[in-house]
Amino acid sequence: MKCKLKIILSIILIVSLSTINVIGLQSYEDIKVFYRNIRIFVDSSEAPSNYKHFIHKGRVYVPIRFLAETLNAKVLWNSEDGIVSINSYHNFEKANPLEGERFVYGEVLSINREKRTVDIYQHIDDNTVYEDKNLKISNDVIIVLRRNSKKINLDFADLKIGDILGMVVNNKNEVRGIIMDI
Q1: Looking at the whole model, is its pTM more than 0.85?
Q2: Does domain 97-181 have CATH number 2.60.120?
Q3: pLDDT tens digit string along 61-96?
Q4: 116-153: string of b/e by CB count within 10 Å (b at 16+)?
Q5: What is the DSSP letter of 29?
Q6: Which of 67, 8, 57 is closest to 32 using CA atoms?
């Protein structure tokens, strides 16, 4: 009787252990790849890489982080859920009044590219008009152009007189973020 019980328990243990392995096993396949000196160009400029790019079944494979960051995108990896997120634009935090920040919305009246300053005309309501002069644009300002659900980043050089925009101004009176809707 004890012998039969040991055999039954052993079988149950073996089956349960093999089931655990099967459940935890993800897809695995040995593949043959062709390594070659593959050069990557972005906007006509070569993107130097220390990675070994390869060809498999007629397709070129490059590391996604290398490619995305070469395109100035931000890559996030969630290893727990197996998710790669790529953001093609950089965003900025909303104004934090508790930190002395403010949000300024208005039309660009003038731009001094050498001093990196702008003058803004704010039309707050029908009776209130305000000019915010010599707003310093930080060197690492993030400028986001938004149209519908699409967003791209611009450079300070892309701003022009007449643009309608919102800006986050920090407690040093320096602009750290600009949003433009078209």
Answers
A1: no
A2: no
A3: 888 888 888 888 888 899 999 999 988 888 899 999
A4: bebbbeeeeeeeeeeebeebbbeeebbbbbeeeeeeee
A5: -
A6: 57
